[in-house]
Structure to design on (141 residues):
């Protein structure tokens, strides 16, 4: 079940974000992600419209929208590969006519996931925080 984020979901959402970020981005030092938790808590999550995925009474994933940008979509690593990310993305696409996002070029599984769900690559840039190249993607045609 997907529902709107509530403030009491914040700790689990941050835990999901941290675990999934470290797991998906082995090319970025894990300390970087750990250093970003407070910014996620105090700045990024509050600025976004967020939804959580609840399975068996537990929050196992979430996504966040900032305007037309899919700013985050994460599932606990042990729940990945079961279609929950597809459901979250489908829900996000119902919230906006067009979505954009950025994803690290080196994160090939996520790049392929977004391509398979109708996103196209429209550019690339260096991430200002890590220096790694990221693709800019959109659902716009």
């Amino acid at each position: 079940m997907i529902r709107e984020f509530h403030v009491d979901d914040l700790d689990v959402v941050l835990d999901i974000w941290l675990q999934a970020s470290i797991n998906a981005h082995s090319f970025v030092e894990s300390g970087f992600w750990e250093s970003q938790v407070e910014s996620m808590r105090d700045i990024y999550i509050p600025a976004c419209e967020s939804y959580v995925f609840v399975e068996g009474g537990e929050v196992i994933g979430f996504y966040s929208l900032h305007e037309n940008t899919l700013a985050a979509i994460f599932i606990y690593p042990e729940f990945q590969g079961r279609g929950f990310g597809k459901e979250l993305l489908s829900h996000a696409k119902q919230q906006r006519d067009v979505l954009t996002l950025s994803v690290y070029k080196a994160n090939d599984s996520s790049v392929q996931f977004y391509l398979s769900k109708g996103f196209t690559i429209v550019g690339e840039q260096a991430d200002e925080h890590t220096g790694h190249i990221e693709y800019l993607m959109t659902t716009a045609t």
